[in-house]
Amino acid sequence: MEFARLTIVTGHYGAGKTNFCVNAALDIAASGRECTVIDLDIVNPYFRTADFGELFAEKGIKLLNPVYANTNLDIPSLNIPLESILAGGGHVVIDVGGDDEGAKALGRYSEIIRGFADREMLYVINRYRYLTKEAADAAVLMREIELSSQLVCTGIVNNSSLGAETASDTVRESLAFAEEVSKLTGLPIRATCAAEGCMPENAPEPYIVRRYVRNLWER
Amino acid sequence: MAEKSLMKGNEALAEAALRAGCKCFFGYPITPQTEIAAYLSKRMPKVGGVFLQAESEVAAINMVYGCAGSGIRCMTSSSSPGISLKSEGISYIAGADLPCVIIDVMRGGPGLGGIQPSQADYYQITKGVGHGDYHIIVLAPSTVQEMADCVTKAFDLADKYRMPAVVLADGLLGQMMEPVAFDDAEIVMSDASEKPWAANGHGNKRKHNIINSLYLQAPELEQTIRDRYERYKKIEAEETRAVADYCDDAEIVVVAYGSTARLAKSAVDEARKQGIKAGVFRPVTLYPFPVKELNEAVKSAKKVLTVEMSMGQMVDDVKLAINCSRPVEFFGRTGGVIPAPNEILTKIKEMIGGNE
């Protein structure tokens, strides 16, 4: 998958945004390009991109968090200088908090983002997430995220999975759903995510991902 | 079984409540369980239920008291400090013999503590939530699917025995995502049709019902409590649940509940690979504590290890349950720190080594 200089990752919480962001950042870094990951999640108290600090440091990826991420202080304080980071020339991946609530934090940077042409705003969907199993519901949520962030999405990422129980059928049975969301929103499918061995043959824009977001007892 | 969905633990608790016919939810937000309220605020109006954000935890539990008195299935949820606030109300509900479900997604304490996972409410929930002589049923799930199943079970047990039932989870379970399946049955909101005691309007057709926990004469109060304890005896005999893995030939049995049981299982799997005869015993009901099942599970064990995300609370019940027939040791992390499987394995090896 080719990434724009600025990749903004939005979606329903639990759709797998963080896992997608970790894969994207590692791939960008592996191609020899400078990469900064911004964890803009102000909704989740834990299980977030900030958990991957060590892995990122190892790969030379910069990580910027909300001030109190992964601490006991539940305060959405953001001091991320996005403008100067973008001026630095490297790639930037922004992991946005789930739903329209999470996208509010993105709204704060909307003016800077609108002024930056080489960008994509991806909407991550997962056919197995309880409240967005219907394409119409997934499409409505995307509009809510757009309203809340004051930015428009440019592409769909089909990240349908059942966590540890994901099999090739899981992904295959999500293709029609992704197609439907694409049709309803008028946006192209930019990636179909699946683990090695689980990618259906006819998947549009296949993107092989690894599962980095795991429970402690699975590690 | 219907198709699986990926759900956050807190969402599964909330959806399961709807499906159990919980018509009214009263709550007040607190991390790490706020998703329960957020989810129900969206879902309740769509299925004909009531979502109400109260002005405080105290208000929410008293709304549950009133609603439960009318015979309708209702629920509140909170996390540790919020449960402390609800304690008085829970005691009144128990004192009035009313069924309701309370969810506690535990975080670190005491005081404001922290927002990370913890199991340090064991004493509070199983022994001391509110004043007076009484028990509440406590179920401790360890997967997202089981969180959903425990909510259903909690509503059924609460109705059956006319008492509060708690689903005791922790932040790790509340926040994690796992596949979960619900059956396809239509959502039907509860009513008071099978509750002849409910104060839901008598229409001058029957004697009025009174919901109350005040007794004017001491012997009358004593008799009411004694009757209640007869019910507890039945619960202790019939409602215990536990899961034992590899305990048949185990020389060391690790006892853990909730998410900690999965970490313990992971350590025990590794111990087995290394030739150590270890087993895991997981109480699903914390009240009633599975005494008979635990004694069965430790039959071949020389030692018992209790693992908790606290400084050691359930370990007391483990010792009591087996009447100290074997040495019981403890390992735990607290304050929001999660014990790692390799730390548990190290402790298992230390104990086995000390045996030789």
Notable traits:
heterodimer; A: 219 residues; alpha/beta; Rossmann fold; eight-stranded parallel β-sheet; 8 strands; 32% helix; globular; B: 356 residues; 2 domains; seven-stranded mixed β-sheet; five-stranded mixed β-sheet; 12 helices; 40% helix
Structure commentary:
The complex is a heterodimer of chains A (219) and B (356). Chain A is α/β, with parallel strands linked by helices and 219 residues long. Chain A has one domain: Rossmann fold, CATH 3.40.50. The radius of gyration of chain A is 16 Å and the shape is globular. Chain B is α/β, with parallel strands linked by helices. Chain B has two domains: 196 residues, Thiamin diphosphate (ThDP)-binding fold, Pyr/PP domains (Rossmann fold, 3-Layer(aba) Sandwich), CATH 3.40.50.970; 111 residues, Rossmann fold (3-Layer(aba) Sandwich). In chain B, the strands form three sheets. Chain B has a seven-stranded mixed β-sheet, sandwiched between helices. A five-stranded mixed β-sheet of chain B has the order 9-11-10-13-14, sandwiched between helices. In chain B, helix 9 links the parallel strand 10 and strand 11. Chain B is globular, with a radius of gyration of 21 Å. The model of chain B has no long low-confidence stretch (mean pLDDT 96). The interface between A and B is medium-sized, with 22 and 30 residues.
